[in-house]
Amino acid sequence: GLAAGIPAVLLVSAAGGWWLTGLVIRPVEDTLRRLEQFAADASHELRNPLMAIQSNCAVAIKYPEQMRPGDRQKFLRIEDAARQLLTLVQELLMLARTGEGIAAPEPVDLAHLVRELAAEYRPRTCERDLQLDLAIEASPASWQVSGKAVQLRCLLANLIENAVKFTPEGGSIAIRLSREPREILVQVSDTGVGIVPADLPHVFDRFWRADRSRHRQGGSGLGLAIAHGIAQAHGGTLDARSVPEHGSTFTVRLPAVHESRRQGKNGGPGL
Ligand code: ADP
């Protein structure tokens, strides 16, 4: 608030010359922080009533004999709307959380994570007649990064989900894990509809969706903004390359945890 802004403004004015910058930047930062907090609070508050609506509808739909004719259709529509809202709220909450950074990082084995995800998505890809390949580079080095497993899972799941969504039947999807001296790369490629060059810079914007994907069911346009936020919070990057009508490749780069750093954590000299 205002009180919190005063010391910073005084400080920069004392430094001389920068007082105007301080006056302008500090309130903008404050506003952004308050907005982020608001998004986090609002999503949290919205989640419980939405879950109540959704679960009540689910129960009503499950026992149709207790309903009047025509009620079932209404409940199905309510449940569908509630499910969409709940997803949106969960996504907003996740987005707000990525802005908080990683509080207590834990070791995450990316090879283990991509194997799990590939196994989870296999039934979906089979159903859509998509080939799903998992390629883990032969490497003696570890696939360990430092961060939050739930968030990294969400990042990669969003990329795989999109690959499935935007690839017509008969196409293929590849998940590749490779290593560079300081970074671990996870690439999710597809042979799908692709993204035109003019759209490519916007794919990570909040709520952005290509014109033709707007008409499709589902999808809020938040998935890639969340994925990007998670990569950044982990000190990494996420970028996209695409050839329209041929496919897209999303590349995540995350700082690898080196042996020396791990020893350092246990009391050794480390880095
Ligand atoms: P959503 O998938 O919910 O629409 P995203 O933020 O995940 O939102 O993606 C934003 C948009 O980027 C999508 O609507 C789509 O237009 C485009 N996009 C994302 N991934 C792909 C992909 N693998 N192939 C083609 N277009 C994609």
Would you give an account of this structure?
Residues 255-271 are annotated as: Disordered. The protein has helices at residues 2-15, 19-62, 71-98, 110-127, 149-165, 211-214, 223-233, 259-265, and strands at residues 106-109, 131-136, 144-147, 172-179, 183-190, 237-243, 247-255. The protein is an alpha+beta fold and 271 residues long. The protein has a 5-stranded mixed β-sheet. The protein has a two-stranded antiparallel sheet with strand order 1-3. A hairpin with a 3-residue loop joins β4 and β5. α1 (2-15) runs antiparallel to α2. 24% of the residues are buried. The structure holds adenosine-5'-diphosphate.
Distance between the termini: 39 Å
Please state the structural category: alpha+beta
Radius of gyration over C-alpha positions, nearest whole angstrom? 23 Å
Morphology: globular
Strand content: 15-25%
Unreliable stretches covering 5 or more consecutive residues: 1-17, 262-271
Number of beta-strand segments: 7
Return the average pLDDT rounded to an integer: 82
What small molecules does this complex bind?
A: adenosine-5'-diphosphate
Strand numbers in spatial order across the main sheet: 2-4-5-7-6
Q: What is the tally of helical segments?
A: 8
What is the helical fraction, as a range of percent? 40-55%
